[in-house]
Design goal:
Blueprint: E1 2-7, H1 11-21, E2 27-33, H2 37-44, E3 51-53, H3 56-60, E4 66-69, H4 76-85, E5 89-92, H5 100-113, E6 117-119, H6 127-137, E7 144-152, H7 169-172, H8 176-179, H9 181-196, E8 199-207, E9 222-229, E10 234-240, E11 246-253, E12 256-261, E13 268-272, H10 291-305, H11 313-329
Parallel strand pairs: 1-2, 1-4, 2-3, 4-5, 5-6, 7-10
Antiparallel strand pairs: 7-11, 8-9, 9-10, 11-12, 12-13
Helix pairs in contact: 1-10, 4-5, 5-11, 6-9, 9-11
C-alpha cells in the first residue's frame, strides 16, 4: 500500500483526493499539510489515523512514499526539492514553477534522487485527445500545417470569484499564459513535435483588462501566442481568464482537419476538405474515463513499480521555457 501526503489542501487538492479515493485498494492518503490549518482539516474530512497539520515537518515525519504538491506556484520548487531529497515520488501541479530557474532546480533534484515525478497536464487524458494523438501518429491527416487552440475560463469575469493567488505575480508568476497556457503549450508540443519537429519560434501579446477588488491583477489575464514548428507548421493559442470557459483544439493537415471541443470530451471530429467525414479509429476500452482519475492511477502505478512516467518534470521544464519566451516577447 502506497502512503501519500498532500502538500496544499485547496480546491485542486480536493479534486485529486476524490480520484485517489477511487484507488483506495492501492494507495492510502496518510497526511494533509497546509499552512492554513483549517484547509487541511477541511480536506481531511474527519478521516481517522491520518496526520493533519500546518507544520510541514510533521508531514515529512509521517512515513510517506509520495507527495502531491498542490500549493501556489511559487512554493513548488522548495517542496519538490525537499521531497526529492527525502526519496519521495512527486506529483506536482502545473506550471512547474514561476521561472525557468525554479523549474531547472526541480528537474535537477528529481534526477539526482531518481524519484518518480509527474506534472498535472491532465488534458492529455481526455478520450478525444488520446484518439487525436493516435490519428496523428497514424498520419491520417497527412503532413501537418497548423495547430490552433483556445483554452480559457471565466475566473476574472466571474463576479463570484474575487482576487486569488493566481492573479498575483509574486505568488503565481505569469497569469493566463501560465495558468491555461501551460496546458496549451504542453498539448501542442506533445501532439505535433513528433511530426513537425520542435517549436522554433514564439511571440505573444499579453494584456490585463479587468479590475477586481479595486486594483488590477498583477499578471496577465489574456494571452495570444503565435509561433512556428521546424517543419513550418503554424502554432496559434488564445488563453484567457476573462470570458466563458472554452476549450477547443484543432489540427490542420494535408488531408483534413481534426477538432476536439471539450463540451464533448469523448468525441473527435475529423473532416476532409471536401466535407467528407474521416472515421477515427476505435481505441481500446479504458478502466477509467475521468482525466484526473486516469492521471492519479498512472502515477500510483509508476510509484508502485518505480517506473518513469510522462509528462515528467523535464517535460514541464520545456513548457516553462516557452512560457518565459512568451512573457519576454510580449509587447
Amino acid at each position: 500500500m502506497i502512503r501519500l501526503g498532500f502538500i496544499g489542501c485547496g480546491g485542486i487538492a480536493r479534486a485529486h483526493l476524490t480520484a485517489l479515493d477511487r484507488l483506495s485498494d492501492r494507495v492510502s492518503v496518510a497526511a494533509f499539510f497546509d499552512a492554513n490549518r483549517a484547509q487541511a482539516v477541511d480536506l481531511a474530512g474527519g478521516r481517522k489515523d491520518v496526520v493533519v497539520t500546518d507544520q510541514v515537518d510533521s508531514l515529512w515525519a509521517s512515513g510517506l512514499d509520495a507527495v502531491l504538491i498542490t500549493v501556489p506556484n511559487r512554493y513548488h520548487a522548495a517542496y519538490s526539492e525537499e521531497a526529492a531529497r527525502r526519496g519521495l515520488a512527486i506529483f506536482c501541479e502545473k506550471p512547474l514553477g514561476v521561472s525557468v530557474a525554479d523549474a531547472t532546480g526541480m528537474v535537477a533534484a528529481v534526477e539526482r534522487a531518481s524519484v518518480v515525478n509527474l506534472v498535472g497536464f491532465k488534458n492529455r487524458y481526455f478520450r478525444a485527445i488520446e484518439t487525436l494523438r493516435h490519428v496523428l501518429d497514424e498520419q491520417m491527416l497527412g503532413p501537418l500545417f497548423a495547430y490552433r487552440e483556445v483554452c480559457s475560463g471565466a475566473r476574472l469575469a466571474n463576479p463570484n470569484i474575487g482576487m486569488e493567488w493566481r492573479m498575483i505575480e509574486t505568488i503565481a508568476g505569469a497569469g493566463a499564459v501560465a495558468d491555461f497556457g501551460s496546458h496549451s503549450i504542453d498539448m501542442a508540443l506533445w501532439l505535433l513535435v513528433p511530426h513537425t519537429g520542435p517549436l522554433v519560434s514564439l511571440d505573444s501579446r499579453l494584456a490585463t483588462f479587468i479590475t477586481r477588488d479595486g486594483s488590477y491583477p498583477s499578471n496577465d489575464d489574456m494571452a495570444v501566442l503565435s509561433g512556428r514548428f521546424a517543419s513550418g507548421a503554424l502554432f496559434s493559442v488564445l488563453n484567457g481568464r476573462v470570458g466563458p470557459g472554452l476549450y477547443q483544439v484543432e489540427v490542420y493537415g494535408l488531408k483534413g482537419r481534426a477538432l476536439v471541443d471539450m463540451t464533448q470530451p469523448d468525441v473527435l471530429n475529423l473532416i476532409g476538405y471536401g466535407g467528407e467525414k474521416i472515421t477515427a479509429p476505435a481505441l481500446p476500452e479504458r478502466k477509467f474515463e475521468d482525466p484526473l482519475l486516469i492521471q492519479m492511477a498512472r502515477f500510483v502505478d509508476a510509484v508502485a513499480t518505480k517506473t518513469p512516467i510522462e509528462p515528467d518534470f523535464s517535460t514541464a521544464l520545456s513548457v516553462q521555457r516557452w512560457i518565459e519566451v512568451a512573457r519576454s516577447s510580449a509587447d
